[in-house]
Amino acid sequence: MVLAQAMVSVTEVAGNIILQNAASTAAFGMQGRSHRAEGDPPGFNLLQELFGTTSPLALEGKMFSKVVKITSPVLRHWLLPTSSDADIWHQVQISRARDPTTMDFMYVVAQVDVTSAVLTEHKVNELQAENLDLHLTTAWLEDQKRKADEINER
Asked: Are residues 120 and 65 located together in one domain of the fold?
């Protein structure tokens, strides 16, 4: 089993990326503050793109963890460069931390592509629902057969 490498991005509380690991850089390009000239506008807002808002959490020092369907056109472009309509699902974990030099709050955002697991779970649920439908249909048919047999015996 091959484990996907987590894309780790450190963001300002507002959601703009400060630092990235190699997997995040490979997925989103160089978005960190250290890759921009002084006065350049910030890169895309990761929290806005993941959640549709820049403050999706009321962390209060806690960790946030959720499986998120990637719907943002910006993230979909970065993560799925072909013009595919395929679903993309990420397990996203966010921890609030403090910048050790400025003591400003920041978020450590780790995300892993869990698309295949989510799609497999959806397929299993679909098959279980079909199995239940077949079971109920079989029970109904058996009941109808029993009633027909009773009528025929009269």
From this structure: no
